[in-house]
Every structure is written in C-alpha cells, then in structure tokens.
C-alpha cells in the first residue's frame, strides 16, 4: 500500500514526515549522533539554520569522538581540548570527516617512489633516499629521506 511514484507502475513506501524542529537542541544533538558523518555534512547541514549550527559546532563532534572508542577519535578529542582558540572558526565537520590523526597525510612519506610528490628546495648538498639503519617494525617501507645538510 504505497503512494504512486513519479514513474507509472512504480510504487514507493513513504512514511509520514516527522517534524523535529520543536525538539530542544540537546535532544536533536543526541539524534544527530546516530547519523553518519558524511550525511551530517552533506544532508543534515542543509535542513535549517539550527541543524547547520549543530553540525558546524564543536558539541556534536566532541560527543561523537567521546562515544567512539578508536584511538584516532580519542586523539582528536584530546587535541581539541588543548588547542588554543583560532582566529578563524575551526571546521569541526571537516575534522570529523577527515579524521587526520593516526594516519600519514603525506604522499610517498619514506621515498619508496623516489622524489615523486615532493618539491625539492635547495639546502645542503641535496636529498637522498637510503635504507633505514635499523628495521622499523610495522613500517610499509624500510627507506627514508636523508639530507646532507650539516
């Protein structure tokens, strides 16, 4: 027993719309905690000004990181407590989606692909790639960048 869709012969189940606007922000925040981060930014943020402010603000993301038990989320939560106030507002949503801690953000960080993805500037007698002097357990590669700069 669905409503007619836009295509003839196709039916879709559409439930009644639920208006969440009368909810206090604290309760709405608890509901938004169950929404995946990308959907928060791409869909929920566009609903209304109140939702945008919640998604862009620190409370939602700090609660999300506090509930998530992985190391990256815990590191992000801890880092936000020690960061000095920024002159520009912090993009909490961007931090929440990218989760930049706990992973390497550099391309070709240990020289496996030569100097690809790196722009060299002068200093010393240049850069080279060498084998690590001691094996690094768990490393993807056993090479590193070295400089002749003294």
UniProtKB/TrEMBL annotation:
Q: Which GO terms describe its biological process?
A: ERAD pathway; glycoprotein catabolic process; SCF-dependent proteasomal ubiquitin-dependent protein catabolic process
Q: Which residues form the FBA domain?
A: 95-150
In terms of superkingdom, the source organism counts as Eukaryota
Report the protein name in the record.
F-box only protein 27-like
Recorded hits in Pfam families, A to Z, give: F-box-like (PF12937), FBA (PF04300)
Q: Which GO terms describe its cellular component?
A: cytoplasm; SCF ubiquitin ligase complex
Record-linked PANTHER family:
F-BOX ONLY PROTEIN 27 (PTHR12125:SF9), F-BOX ONLY PROTEIN 6-LIKE PROTEIN (PTHR12125)
Q: Where is the F-box domain?
A: 17-64
What is the organism field in this record? Monodelphis domestica
Gene3D superfamilies in alphabetical order: 1.20.1280.50, Galactose-binding domain-like (2.60.120.260)
């Amino acid at each position: 027993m669905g409503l007619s869709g836009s295509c003839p012969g196709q039916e879709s189940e559409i439930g009644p719309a639920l208006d969440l606007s009368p909810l206090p922000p604290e309760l709405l925040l608890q509901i938004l905690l169950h929404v995946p981060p990308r959907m928060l930014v791409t869909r929920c943020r566009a609903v209304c000004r109140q939702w945008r402010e919640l998604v862009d603000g620190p409370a939602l993301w700090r609660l999300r990181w506090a509930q998530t038990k992985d190391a990256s989320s815990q590191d992000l939560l801890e880092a936000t407590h020690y960061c000095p106030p920024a002159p520009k507002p912090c993009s909490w949503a961007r931090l929440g989606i990218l989760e930049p801690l706990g992973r390497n953000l550099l391309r070709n960080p240990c020289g496996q692909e030569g100097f690809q993805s790196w722009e060299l500037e002068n200093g010393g007698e240049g850069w080279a790639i060498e084998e690590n002097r001691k094996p690094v357990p768990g490393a993807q590669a056993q090479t590193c960048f070295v400089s002749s700069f003294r």
